[in-house]
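Researcher: Please translate sequence to structure tokens.
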Amino acid sequence: MKNKKIVIGMGTFLLVASLFTTGCGKEVKLSSKAVVGIEDGEVTVNDFYKEIKKDNISRLIDMIDHKILDEKYKKTKEEDEEVKKQIDSIKEYYKEEDTFNQVIRQYFGANNEEELDDILRLEYKRQKAVEDYIEKNLTKDEIQKYYDENIHGDMAAKHILIAVNTSEDADDDEKKEAEEQALEKAKNIIKKLNDGENFDKLAKKNSDDKASASKGGDLGTFKYDDMVAEFSEACAKLDVNEYTKEPVKTSYGYHIILKTKQEDKKKLSKVKAEIKEKLREQKMNDDASLYYEVLIKIREENGITWNDSTLKKEYNDTMDKLIKQSKENQTSNQ
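Model: Translation complete:
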């Protein structure tokens, strides 16, 4: 597929097309044969082509992507289910048939459910193609770095949680005071641990996590992502049988963590697929325009040849606009 060239034109019109160059660009010149005869004139194939290419660049882009993606991404059960799910969701929200048809025309440019199905299937294939392209082009260094910094073996720990107790109508001063009291209590417990007091007994007596307090604060074995980030990060840095020397703040309050076990992390080969998926998600979340930029690269790698400079310019302008809009939307949502 990579070596196949796709020549862009307007359907079967290009079967009779010839090229001519005019100054700074080129246009497709079609047959002068009349499509429609009129008493005092006629509409030629070329007249018709010039007219219909106006404002139809989006449809042309869809045709391009169908040619590229339909062969590579055959229809699957997963695709069927996802497209049906999206259509059913729209139908559920817009139950009246007239309203449903109005909505899909306005937001999708679809005149009926069959056209909507085709649009959603193309978007599904585009998404798959972009994801595959990003993962395929990840470097070994990127994968290794993520593995070194973000993949961890399972851990086991105990903790003592000191919650910040405030009422719903507490003002800022009351919240600040409760925060300070919780932090001071957590620090005092650490002092007691430093003095040799038993962790389990302190947990049973002081922890606000009642589910684990009765077990001496024991949380059992857990994966790195099972806990909130601050907790997991702090626990990962500890040696086995070491506790945190400063309270660890999370949305639950202040924790004193005692690490009781550290398992070896899985080999890179076992988690490479997971890492690629994570890195791909990270890249797409960090750069909303990446989706459109990758689609441009995919089209280029499939050997597109533009035989009409007007359409080429409209295509470039359209993609530039989509990239700009995605960047602006991402900035405004941050």
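Researcher: Any highlights?
Model: The chain is about 55% helix and 15% strand.
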